[in-house]
Amino acid sequence: MSLIVHTIPAFTDNYIWLFHQPGNNRAYVVDPGDASPVIEALNRLELSLGGIIVTHHHPDHVGGIHQLLDNYQVPVYGPKGITQVTHIMKDGDSLNLAETAFDVLAVPGHTLDHLAYFTAGEPLVFCGDTLFAGGCGRLFEGTPEQMWHSLSRLAALPAETLIYCTHEYTQANLEFALAVEPENKVLQQRALQVQQERQQNQSTIPSTLTQELSSNPFLRANQPSIRKAAEEHEGRPANSDEDTFAIIRRWKDHF
Ligand SMILES: [Zn+2]
């Protein structure tokens, strides 16, 4: 299998994902915060819309659904509590779209309703605002413990998994990562590469889980180097991986 995933830039730094099988024009869109760039892409690529997938309730992820439904009568898959969702998804569900089986994972923290959609066949994950390239989402609704648990679930996916997150935050995330872990050689290399890609206005997404495990401080809160940096920043010992995670998440909020 080789699912085709198109990148649709939206707003200032969002990505909307549109995927389909080669030779099949029925496509599915993930987190359409805005309808017009999706409709434009469908027309340009000569694709028809088969359905909509949603990770969480924030307006920049659901804002375009209403207008898409005016143009296409399609099912909307997503968490409970979003009015336009026609098929409520929850942890442990599986979803078959574009000849691809997705596992639904509950990943609360950024919001309480947040879901991720993973397919082992590719492998790839649509993870919304939970895991970012080089970073993670802000904690608007959940606790650091919830977010650390959610990130740990994503960290346990196959290392070659492609990380399709929803924002181009990579460069700023890696600047923070370097403040936490300045001696990390993989991180230094990645930051240089991302800087070059951004200078040429290229997308840095998707990344791979391998990259995140070696250079994303929020997936590395269980590593001695991150714990040490967190303790030095906070001026006290960290009690646990969750505590280390909580400290660096707060640190990033004020970075
Ligand atoms: Zn969000």
Task: Give an overview in words.
The protein has nine helices and 14 strands. The chain is an alpha/beta fold. It has one domain: Metallo-beta-lactamase, Chain A (4-Layer Sandwich), CATH 3.60.15.10. A hairpin with a 5-residue loop joins strand 2 and strand 3. Helix 8 packs across helix 9. The longest helix is centred in the last third of the chain and has 15 residues. It is globular. The N and C termini lie far apart (42 Å). The relative contact order is 0.12. The mean pLDDT is 97. Bound molecules: zinc ion (ZN). Zinc ion binds next to loops. The site of zinc ion (ZN) has 4 residues, from loops.
Low-confidence stretches: none
Just name the CATH architecture. Answer: 4-Layer Sandwich
- Which sequence of strands runs across the widest sheet? 1-2-3-4-5-6
The domain tally reads 1
How do the SSEs run, as a string of H and E?
A: EEEHEHHEEEEEEEEHEHHEHHH
What is the arithmetic mean of pLDDT?
Answer: 97
Helices, by number, come to: 9
Q: How much of the polypeptide forms β-strand, as a percent range? A: 15-25%
Q: What's the CATH class label? A: Alpha Beta
Backbone structural class: alpha/beta
How would you characterize the largest beta sheet?
A: 6 strands, mixed
At the fold tier of CATH, the topology name is Metallo-beta-lactamase, Chain A
Question: Any idea what the CATH superfamily is called?
Answer: Ribonuclease Z/Hydroxyacylglutathione hydrolase-like
Q: What small molecules does this complex bind?
A: zinc ion
Gap from first CA to last CA:
42 Å
The counted number of beta strands is 14
Q: Kindly state the percentage of residues in helix.
A: 25-40%
Radius of gyration: 18 Å
